[in-house]
Amino acid sequence: MSAVRNLGLTKERFLLPGHSACHGCGLAINLKIVLKVLGKRTILVIPACCSSVIQGPYPKVAFKVPTMNIAFASTGAAISGVSRALKIRGIEDVFVVGWAGDGGTVDIGIQALSGAAERGENILYICYDNQAYMNTGIQRSGSTPYGAWTTTTPIVGKKQFPKDLPLIMAAHRIPYVATASLGYLADMIRKLRKAKEIKGPRYIHLLSPCPVGWRHDSAHTVRIAKLAVDTWAWPLYEVENGRVKVTVKPKRKPLKEYISLQGRFKRLTDGEIKLMEEEVIRRYEMLLKMEKSGIEF
Amino acid sequence: MEMADFFHIMPVSKPSVGAVGKTGTWRVFKPIIDHEKCTRCGLCWIYCPDESIELKEDDTPKINYDFCKGCGICSDVCPVKAIKMEAEEIG
Amino acid sequence: MAKWEMMTGNKAAAVGAKLARVQVIPAYPITPQTTIVEYLSKFVEQGELKAEFIRVESEHSAMAACIGAAAGGARAFTATSSHGLLLMTEMVFWAAGARLPIGMAVVNRALAPPWNIHVEHTDSHSQRDSGFIQFYAKDNQEVLDTIILMYKVAEDERVLLPAMICLDGFILSHTYMPVEIPDQEDVDLFLPPYEPKGFLLDPEEPLTYGSLTLPEHYMEMRYDIQRSIESARDLILKYSKEYEEIFGRYHGGLLELYKVEDADYLLISMGTLGEEAKVAADTLRREGIKAGAVRVRVFRPFPTETFVNTVSEKKALIVVERHLSLGGIGGALGTELKALLYGKTDVPIFNYVTGLGGRDTTYIDLAKIVKHSIKTGRPKDNYMWYNLKMG
Ligand SMILES: Cc1ncc(C[n+]2csc(CCOP(=O)(O)OP(=O)(O)O)c2C)c(N)n1
Ligand code: SF4
Ligand code: SF4
Ligand SMILES: [Mg+2]
Fold this sequence. Notes:
The structure holds three protein chains of three kinds. By secondary structure, chain A is of the alpha/beta class. Chain A has one domain (2-293): Rossmann fold, CATH 3.40.50. Chain A contains twelve helices and nine strands. Chain A has an eight-stranded mixed beta sheet, sandwiched between helices. Chain C is built from twelve helices and 16 strands. Chain A binds chain C through residues 40-43, 45, 52-53, 55-59, 61, 63-71, 73-74, 76-89, 94, 96, 111-112, 114-115, 118-119, and chain C through 23-24, 26, 50-52, 54-58, 60-62, 64-74, 76, 90-91, 94, 98, 201-203, 205-214, 217. The structure holds thiamine diphosphate, iron/sulfur cluster (2 copies) and magnesium ion (MG). One iron/sulfur cluster (SF4) binds at residues 21-22, 25, 27, 50, 54, 130, 134, 210-213 of chain A.
C-alpha cells in the first residue's frame, strides 16, 4: 500500500500518548519519528527546553527510551561523557543522542557542542529548531528568522538573520551534517538512517514548527514544514565527509506562501519580505554552488 | 544503619501512557475518520504528534480519543480528505 | 609492596585517581590544578590507566561529561580550582541532584579580580550547599588516601552522592612530600571496580532522570540527599577504620584531634593550617598555655556530634580560616560552628580571618592569635581580621 509503509517505520511507540506538548507540536512529531528510526537502543540526553517539559511530571514520563535531563548549556559535553562510558564498558550498539532546542544548540550550548565535534566524539546531536526559546515563552534566539515577532522582539521583529549552525558544524569537518524537515519525510528518515550507520560526531538540524510560537493553526504544522522547503526558506542538504549535497531541489514558491500562514511574520512590510526572500535565495544558491563546485570543507 | 531500612527518593520517572493524564480533555475539535474514503496510507498515523492514531493489522487507522488533542494535523495531511474535524460538544 | 615516592599534592591526586581505577576523566586545566590533568593524561596515554580522557573545552563541560559518564555506568573523576570550580557550579549542583558518585579534586585558590593563584577556601566553600561530600587535606599522603576513600563512601548505596577532596593551592599542590603508594591489589580489595548502584542509562530499563518534578514531590528528594549525606558521617568513620586496617594510615575520620583531651584552648582550622595549628599548640604548651588543635577534615557532612563532644568543655575555641563570607558574620567554619554550638555550650568562639589570597600564615601567627584571644577574654566582634595591613 502506502508511501508510509515503504518508509519501514515501526509501529512500536517510544513517545507515548499523554505527553504535554501543545496541539500540533512539531517537536513531538520530530521526536516520535527520530525514535522510531533509531529504535530501542537509544539514550537521549535533553537540556532545558520544551522537550524537558513535554515528558510529563515525575514519577511518570512519556518517553520510552532511557533519558537523562541535563542543564541547558551542557548537552554536547554530557553526551560525550555517556558515549565514553559506554566505550570503556565495551557497549557498542547503543546510540547516544543529544536532543536539544535551537536555544540550547546555537546559543548557550554551542561551546559544548563545538568541543564534542572537535574531539570527534561518537555522538548524534539533533537540534529541533523551533526558532525561538519556546519553553520560556517565545523569546528570540540566534536561530530566530529575520522579521519574526517574539516576546523579546515584540514591536519591530528580529532585525538579524539567523546563525547558520549546520554550516558551522560542517566547518568542524565532522563525518555527517544534515538538515531535514518533517514535511519531507522520506528525506528525513533517509538522513537519520544514514546518521545511524556512521561513527563519530553527527549533527542533524530539524525544522520544528511550533503553532504557539509561530502563531499558526495547529493543523498546519506539516504543511508549513513542507512550504519552508518549497520556498527555499529551509534548504534540505547534507554534508558528508565535507561534501555538500542539496538533497531536495524544489521549484521555488514565493516566500509569502510560507510566511503568510504564520502570525509571527504578520507585521512584515513588503520591503522586509523582499529582503528576506533575497537572503533565502542567496543562501539556497550558495549551497547549490557549493555542491556544484565539489569543494570540500 | 542497615541497608534494609534504607530506600532513596530519586528523581527517576517511569514510562507511562498518559503521563500527564488523558489529554483528550484538551480537545475542542474532534477528528472523525470516514473509513469509506480512507485509503489506509498511514500519513495520519505517522504525523499525529500525540501517537493517538493506531494502525490496526490491516493498516486501518483508529483514533484514540483518550489522548487525541484535536490538533487537526491528521485531517490536514490526509490526501483524500477522509478526516473531518467536528466541534466537540461542550459539557 | 607499597612504595615511597617524593611527590607533589597534584601527583598524589593523580596517583590516587589511578589507584581508584577511574574510567572517564573529563578535565580542563587551571593553575594550580594543571599538573593533575597532565599526570592523568600521561597515565592514560602510557597505558598505565585504562580510562577515557576527555579533553573538554571548559569546566562546565568537565562536570557535565562526568555526569554523563557516571550515568553511563563509569567511575568518573575530574579536578579543578577557583574560577574553574565557579564556572562548573551549575553542574556541581546537578551532579549531586542526579545522585551520581563522581569524584573531584579541588585545588583551593583565591578568586579574581584581582588575579591571584594562591590558596584560599572561598572556591570550595561556594559549593558547600551543593550536596557534594567535602574533604580537606593536610598533606599529600592524605590527598592520595582520601581519593580512594571518597569513592568508597560516595558509591555506598546509602550515600550515592559525589565527593570532592580539597587541597591547598601550592602549599600542597606543588610541594614535594614523601608519599606511600599502596599496592593496586590492596586498593582493589578496598575499592572494587565500579558497579553502578543508582542512576544508570540502560536501554533494558528505559527510565528518565531528572524530569520535571512538582512541589508535591521535590522536597522529599532534597530530604533524601540530606539524609544520605548525613549517613556518610558514620560511613566515613567506618571506612577510614577499614582503610587503616589495610593500609596503616588514619587521617582522622571527620575531625583530626591533636592534644585535645587536656587542652584549655583549641585552634580549629582546615587544610594545611591544621598542620600549623599542631605546631602552634606545641609552641604554646612550652609557654604554659594548654592548647590543642582540631582539624576539620570533612566539612560536608558537617561534623556535628563529634564537634559538640570535643569542644564543649573548653575555655575558648579559636577558629582560624582562609575564608570570609563577604557581607556575612565570619568565615564558613566559624559561622557554622557557632550555629552548631548555640544553646549547647557557653564556650567563647573566636573567628579569625586570615591568609586570604595565599598570605603566609604559620604556627607563629596561630600562636599569636591564641594569645590575642586569651587576652580578649570574650569575643567582642563576630570575627576578626588577622594580619591585615591597613595604614
Ligand atoms: C542556564 C539556564 N539559563 C536559562 C534557562 C531558562 N530556559 C529554560 S528552557 C529555555 C529556552 C529553551 O529554548 P530552546 O533551546 O530553543 O528550546 P525550546 O524551548 O524552544 O524547545 C530557557 C531560556 C535555563 N534553564 N538554564
Ligand atoms: S511551545 Fe511549541 S515546541 Fe513547545 S511544546 Fe508547544 S508547540 Fe511544541
Ligand atoms: S487531531 Fe491531532 S492529536 Fe487527534 S488524532 Fe488527529 S493528529 Fe492526532
Ligand atoms: Mg527553540
